[in-house]
Amino acid sequence: MSTVYDTSELNNRAAGLAAAAGAVRSGRLVVFPTDTLYGLGCDAFDAAAVRSLLEAKGRGPDMPVPVLVGSWTTIDGLVLSVPRQARALIEAFWPGGLSLVLPHAPSLSWDLGRTRGTVMLRMPLHPVALELLREVGPMAVSSANKSGFAPATTAWDAREQLGDAVPVYLDGGPSGESTASTIVDLTGPDAVVLREGAVPVAEVSEVLGLEVEVAR
After folding, report:
1. CATH for 157
2. Any idea where the YrdC-like domain is (predicted)?
């Protein structure tokens, strides 16, 4: 049985965040609003929970699950190193609709799918998301929809697709933007935009002071 909490009402918001944090800590799934789309998330370090997330979406490990963080500094403990380009993009666009792909720290015991030693990180610009992330730490988060179906822009869209596979839904109203994040790969010598989304490629190039390559 799942419960939907309206986070626009103060008491419901507190109750919903407490329920969501409890669910994450016990290895279960939650749906919550972000600044782009609604996300389906769990503890990034709980491999069984990540498998449950992939099962709920009907997806395999071939598409690794991104990780959301609640602060700039969290990234330092998750990646092998934070290059100058990453720092510049974080300062310019976090929190916001930009995801960074970096080599993850080899000491981390997580299983996000077939990552090939990398992790995709983002800090969302949404108060409910940030409050939850700051309470429970890094979360593995994918779009809150069944694989092959339209991403959810409301909590009720997500519940219609995912049902009781998710015990806690945080309703923050319609998502601010119905576009996914822009993804920048920083695992090689040059920055490469893997997907243009909420942040235009031109703005990424301006921050880095060079014309950024866009993957074809």
Report:
1. 3.90.870.10
2. 14-199
